[in-house]
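Project outcomes to date are best conveyed with an example. Our students and postdoctoral researchers have been running inverse folding experiments weekly, and each run begins with a structure described purely in tokens. The record below, which covers 140 residues, was selected by the lab manager from last quarter's runs and is presented without edits.
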């Protein structure tokens, strides 16, 4: 598909603006829970996944080394937000699971940020449509 480069640039600039506003709003919310951005992103990603991942998969998602992710998981586990469980098929593999405390913290973050989120300007149908468009864009 051929697109007007100026329009593509305008849309990209608008996306940057919206993302920056969302980062500010969500930053306030996750910091209120005592989390860093990376910790919050890990918790959100784990909430979205159907199957709990091992450390190696988390490291691949974050594009970082497994020892770094192990330390991150250790800190979140010490706070009661994550737990490691043996994989049922391979007991040598430890999968990372969210705890009920993490689910509660994520709900509080979402609730706190919703009132200031740029998404508050959209109706439910528009939000669903935007989500689908962004998912499609992310695949490219």
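After processing, the design step wrote out the following sequence:
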């Amino acid at each position: 598909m051929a697109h007007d480069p100026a329009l593509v640039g305008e849309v990209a600039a608008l996306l940057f603006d919206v993302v920056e506003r969302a980062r500010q709003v969500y930053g306030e919310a996750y910091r209120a829970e005592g989390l860093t951005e990376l910790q919050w992103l890990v918790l959100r990603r784990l909430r979205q996944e159907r199957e709990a991942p091992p450390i190696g998969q988390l490291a691949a998602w974050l594009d970082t080394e497994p020892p770094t992710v192990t330390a991150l998981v250790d800190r979140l586990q010490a706070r009661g937000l994550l737990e490691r469980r043996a994989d049922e098929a391979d007991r040598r593999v430890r999968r990372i699971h969210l705890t009920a405390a993490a689910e509660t913290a994520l709900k509080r973050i979402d609730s706190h940020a919703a009132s200031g989120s740029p998404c508050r300007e959209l109706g439910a149908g528009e939000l669903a449509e935007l989500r689908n468009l962004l998912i499609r864009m992310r695949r490219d």
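The chain is about 65% helix and 5% strand. The chain has a mean pLDDT of 93. The training component of this project remains on track.
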